[in-house]
Fold this sequence. Notes:
Layout: H1 21-40, E1 51-56, H2 62-73, E2 77-82, H3 94-104, E3 107-111, H4 115-124, E4 129-131, H5 139-153, E5 160-164, H6 169-181, E6 184-188, H7 197-210, E7 214-217, H8 220-224, E8 229-232, H9 244-251, H10 259-264, E9 270-273, H11 285-288, H12 295-313
Parallel strand pairs: 1-2, 1-3, 3-4, 5-6, 5-8, 6-7, 8-9
Phosphoric acid mono(formamide)ester binds next to helix 2.
Amino acid sequence: xxxxxxxxxxxxxxxxxxxxxxxxxxxxxxxxxxxxxxxxxxxxxxxxxxxxxxxxxxxxxxxxxxxxxxxxxxxxxxxxxxxxxxxxxxxxxxxxxxxxxxxxxxxxxxxxxxxxxxxxxxxxxxxxxxxxxxxxxxxxxxxxxxxxxxxxxxxxxxxxxxxxxxxxxxxxxxxxxxxxxxxxxxxxxxxxxxxxxxxxxxxxxxxxxxxxxxxxxxxxxxxxxxxxxxxxxxxxxxxxxxxxxxxxxxxxxxxxxxxxxxxxxxxxxxxxxxxxxxxxxxxxxxxxxxxxxxxxxxxxxxxxxxxxxxxxxxxxx
Length: 317
Ligand code: CP
Ligand code: NVA
C-alpha cells in the first residue's frame, strides 16, 4: 500500500512545480481540516510563537490580508515589509536581506516582480520562502483554486478546465496544478501571450503521469466547450499597465468570458477568477456576479490553503 505523505520535501514553495501530486493532496486535506476548525470556532494554535515576514514589491489585498490573518488564527504573528521601506530599496542585496531576515523570522512570504528575486531569496534564506506572486507563478492562488474545485465537484481527476486569457503567472501554475491532479486543461491565449514553452512542456509531461491532457490553443470556444471549470484573469497584470492599449486590442472582444462562453461549457460549469477583476474586460458582470461564479469561495480559500502551507513548511503538523 502506498504510504500517504505527511510532510513536504522542499524547503520552499515557489511554484506548484515544488509539490508532488501527493503533496498537493496533503495541503488540500489539511486546508479542509483547518477550514472546518476555523468555521466551528475551534482554536488551532499550530504556529504559536512563530513569525512570518511578508515582503511586498507590488500591491495586494487578498494575499496580504489572508497571510496576516492566517498567522494570527494559527497563534503566530506576521510582519508587513513593504519593499520600498526596507534597505532593499537602498540597494542592500537580496542575499543579505535573506540572511538577515532568517535571523528573526520563521518563514518569509514575498511578492516580487522578477521570479529570479524570489529564487535568490529562497537560496539565501535558511527559513522557508513562499511565493506570494511573481511574474512567473502564483502557487498559493492555485492551491486555493484546487480546493474550491474539489469542494464544488468532489473529485479533481477527470475534470476539464478552460483557461481563457493571458498565459500569465496564474495560468502557469494552474497548468502544473491541473497536470498534477489529473485535470485536463485547455488554455486559450492569443498568439504571443501563451504560457512559456518550458511550463507547458513540464505540465504536459506531468499530465502523462496522471492522465491529464494539457493543450494550448488560440481558440476560446475550443477551450470552453464542455468545460467543468472556466477560469480567467486580468489582461493587464501588475507591471504591465504600460501595455494597456496594445493588450486591449489583442484580447478584446475574443478573449472575454461572457454568458456565451459559459453557454459552451457544461451545464453545471463554474467560473473562477483570482481577483482583482475588471468587469467588462476579461469577464462580464453577469458571469462574475452570476450563477456560475465561485470567486468569493475561491478568495476565502486563499486563507485556508495558506494556513496549511505555513504549517507544513514550518513543520508544525
Ligand atoms: N489574487 C490575489 O493574489 O489577490 P491580491 O493581488 O489582492 O493579493
Ligand atoms: N496576473 C495578475 C494576478 C494578480 C493576483 C497579476 O500578476 O497582476
